[in-house]
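Before going further, learn to read the protein records used in this course. A complete example follows; check for yourself that the lines match position by position.
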Amino acid sequence: MNIALFGGTFDPVHLGHLAVARAAADKFDLGRVYFVPADLPPHKQMRRLTNFQHRFAMLALATTEDPRFVPSLLDAHTGQPNYSIDTVRRLKSTLKKSDRLYFLIGMDAFKDIATWYKPVELLAELEFIIVSRPGFSLADIGAALPEPLRPNAAMLRAARHQRSEGTIALRGATIHLLSEVHEKASSTHIRAAAHKSVKQLSRYVPLLVAEYIKKEHLYTGGAKADLQSDAERKGKGYIQRVGRAEAEQARKRVHQEQENVKRSKIVSGLERSDKEERQVLSFEEPRHSHAGRSHKNG
């Protein structure tokens, strides 16, 4: 089965996240997309986040309609920063050898990947799917890579006018580029709409999530108890209580979904056809189209 890990703070999950996941699932024949909210995101430790149980409950509500989408507790309450390399390895330890794992990420996040914890090892662990944005070229992808994988200056100059699409096959990394997904949503829009009606808020988040936000009075500036600072999240003896019915149902749903996957004996029929042509890009030679290479990630 083809599987993607989609991480982030999801504060909150919005229609843009879901559109990206659907586009990736359709293009790469993903049987599962695991939405993994971070409890202690390393790059956002100075930002006050909505409590984990709210973010997870909203994810559970947002993913109910697509059977391919699964909210995951992989990064819940680990007590330490949620480094992607650790999350990936935890997930891979639960998969079958025949499963193929991808890391789904937006270009805005990928451009900082060289600053992540063990980025070279992370890129070698699994294939990446990067959601492109207008104005980004192949050179931007190459410039963002960690130093050991980064093309030289001449190669980057040559790639400056190449569009960010297709597949980039490097020694030590395979990167698939997903065209821009047109779904406008941002935390700024959501926080402004949180003061308005459910109908207006549902322009940016799924209806069930909009109703949850209004019911719990989130993103209005008046629910201080529902925010966590970095110190609070990492404080001694910190234990999150998930007491609301929505979050508890979400946990049960995830557990049942994972059990169903484990029990499944169906051989995945989602492998891509050998006849499918895929564009493979290279920093070392002109761009051309041929069948993409495939390999197993274990």
